[in-house]
């Protein structure tokens, strides 16, 4: 089994959407490919988890539009 990669971002840390974040079909009450938040939107990490199969960090980020979106490290950057 691979080592768990330590998270780059911490709970409560402000981050920016590094790309347009669109619904991959898993976000409730939104159609697939709907824009969830635009590139450059600032949010806050509200939870840090770990993808079991890949042992990579997953971040729940709350954006100003009230959406809490699961993000990978490459989808966000430090604010």
Radius of gyration over all CA atoms, rounded: 12 Å
In the CATH hierarchy, what is the class?
Mainly Beta
What is the β-strand count? 7
How far apart lie the N and C ends? 33 Å
CATH topology: SH3 type barrels
Largest sheet: 5 strands, antiparallel
Average pLDDT confidence is: 94
Helix vs. strand class: mainly beta
SSE string = EEEEEEE
Strand arrangement, largest sheet?
A: 6-5-4-1-7
Can you name the CATH architecture? Roll
Give the strand content: 35-45%
Number of domains: 1
Features:
79 residues, SH3 type barrels, mainly beta, 7 strands, two-stranded antiparallel sheet
How is this structure best described in words?
This protein has 79 residues and is an all-beta fold. The protein has one domain: SH3 type barrels (Roll), CATH 2.30.30. 0% of the residues lie in helices and 42% in strands. The chain contains no helices and seven strands. Strand 5 and strand 6 form a beta hairpin. The termini are far apart. The mean pLDDT is 94.
What's the helix and strand layout?
Layout: E1 14-17, E2 21-22, E3 35-37, E4 42-51, E5 56-62, E6 68-71, E7 76-78
Antiparallel strand pairs: 1-4, 1-7, 2-3, 4-5, 5-6
Short description:
The protein is mainly beta.
């Amino acid at each position: 089994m691979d080592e768990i990669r330590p998270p780059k971002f911490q709970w409560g840390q402000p981050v920016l959407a590094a790309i347009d974040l669109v619904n991959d079909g898993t976000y409730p009450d939104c159609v697939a490919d709907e824009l969830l938040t635009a590139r450059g939107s600032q949010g806050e990490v509200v939870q840090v988890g770990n993808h079991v199969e890949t042992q990579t960090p997953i971040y729940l980020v709350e954006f100003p539009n009230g959406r809490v979106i699961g993000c990978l490290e490459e989808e966000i950057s430090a604010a």
